[in-house]
Write the structure tokens for this entry.
Amino acid sequence: METDKKHQHYVWKNYLKPWATDKKIWCKRHDSIFNPSLNNIAQEKYFYEVDPLNEIEIRIATRFIEMNPPENRPFLIKKLAQYIYICNSNNKHLKKNAIEDYHARIENSIGSAFEYLYKKICLFSTITITKLISSILYPFNTFEQKECVKK
């Protein structure tokens, strides 16, 4: 039996790692300052759990796909079909964990590159690290879309 991942991060834990000390990070929310562990910040219970899409939401997603370059459309159509399949599934585990698992696969595929960067750029400022991480993630997202297109 598969185990549900209840606490799903909406900010990748490894992204927060450079700003942590002893696996804890300082945070300010409203008037409160606190020091949670990386496991207990930027996460919610079943954050990625899905509900079925209604007709309007499907039309909006379809219109978004149509507005993309033709070479990206097959990938996006496939992802929409997968999402609709998950949403309409009777499998509660799938509905609660499929999107989280998808993100985990992406994160795991680039995890070693992040570890390398953390070790090599520890002398840079926080701003430099943020710019570097953003520049790495953007091309990855572009690559992921184009990777599935067969000509």
About this structure: Residues 20 and 86 are 35 Å apart (CA to CA).
